[in-house]
Amino acid sequence: MSSYIDIAVNLLGSALEPDIAQIVQAAADQGVSPLIVIGSDLTESAAAIQLCQQYPKQLYCTAGVHPHHASEWQADSKQLQTTLCQAPQVVAVGECGLDYNRDFSPRSAQRQAFIDQLELAVELKKPVLMHERDAHDDFLSIVKEYRPHLCGALLRCFTGTRAQMEAYIELDLHLGITGWVCDERRGQELAELVPFIPKERLLIETDSPYLLPRSMRPKPKSSKNKPEYLPYIAQYIANLRGENAAEFAKQCYQNSLAFFNLSQANG
Fold first, then answer.
1. Which Gene3D superfamilies does the record associate with it (predicted)?
2. Quick one: DSSP state of residue 52?
3. CA 47 – CA 250 distance, rounded (Å)
4. N or C: less crowded end of the chain, CB within 10 Å?
5. Residue 167: which of 177, 180, 158 has the closest Cα?
6. What angle do CA 210, 213, 217 make, to 5 degrees?
7. pTM of the entire structure?
8. What would the mean pLDDT of 229-247 be, rounded to a whole number?
9. Inter-axis angle of helices 136-146 and 162-170, nearest 10
10. What per-residue confidence (pLDDT) applies to 265?
């Protein structure tokens, strides 16, 4: 059986939270382990660290402030995040970035929180896990400035255009691909782009419980996406790329180990 790492799972503050033990086990039964739990604000990041302590080597997490929560970013936030990011369970700074689609926080606040977190990733020599939606130009100009000093930079849940993809690859970003690619209505452009992502830059994720792959048959009874479905997404992407599914899974697994600085023995 192939091994997989789900690089973005919303285990906390979502519909998955009541069933964490079962979800972690069901994923591991499909070879999906460890899971990377997303911290989207500092309170959730602290909770994610505690959760990971209960599931050593099965769960790791990120610690950061998502652009939706950027208005909560205060003078002492960076210091608090620095402390959180030093926990051994934290494998990346984030989720951070820009989201001009929802604008839950003012754009100026989003930019400031993003810049501060990129600076922190540079200081701590940790990779950064990023989010961008409808904010490509500002996102690109900010990341360009910090990219030479970052040890690793991942744009997760990539759903952009060819020009955006090429700009991100030129900046040496990793791109995370979700089951969005399985959506025949919204995912067409992404499906066409996926074969052009360099194999060593590609990571795979479910973004559970969101983005249940629409093409799954039989359709899961629940509309909740789960980490155990990652092998399906991997197979789908491998087909789009014309690659052997097991080889593709192995490449993504190795990419994930290297990006998050995890040892093989942790699987």
1. Metal-dependent hydrolases
2. H
3. 31
4. N
5. 158
6. 135
7. 0.95
8. 98
9. 10
10. 43
Q: Give all strands (DSSP E) within 87-157, no chain letters.
A: 90-99, 128-133, 153-155
Structure tokens at 113: 């929180």
Distances (CA, A) of 113 to 70, 97, 172, 209: 6, 8, 22, 26
Query: Which residues fall within 8 angstroms of residue 243, CB to CB, at 6 or more apart?
Result: none
- What is the four-CA torsion angle of 155, 159, 165, 171, rounded to 10 degrees? -10
What residues contact residue 96 under an 8 Å CB cut-off, 6+ apart? Answer: 64, 65, 66, 67, 113, 114, 117, 118, 128, 129, 130, 131
The arithmetic mean of pLDDT across residues 178-197, rounded, is 94
Separation between Cα atoms, residue 201 and residue 251, nearest integer Å: 10
Instruction: Kindly tell me the number of DSSP H helices and DSSP E strands found in the chain.
Output: 9, 8
3-state secondary structure of 33: strand
Q: Which amino acid, 98?
A: L
Backbone angles phi, psi at 153, to 5 degrees: -140, 125
Contact 240, 187 (CB under 8 A): no
Confidence (pLDDT) at 264:
60
Q: Give the whole-angstrom CA distance, residue 38 versus residue 52.
A: 11
Residue 131 DSSP SS3: strand
Exposed/middle/buried for 146, CB within 10 Å: 0-12, 13-18, 19+?
A: middle
Average pLDDT over residues 242-249: 98
Query: What is the mean pLDDT of the segment spanning 21-32?
Result: 97
| Torsion angles phi and psi, residue 119, rounded to 5 | -60, -40
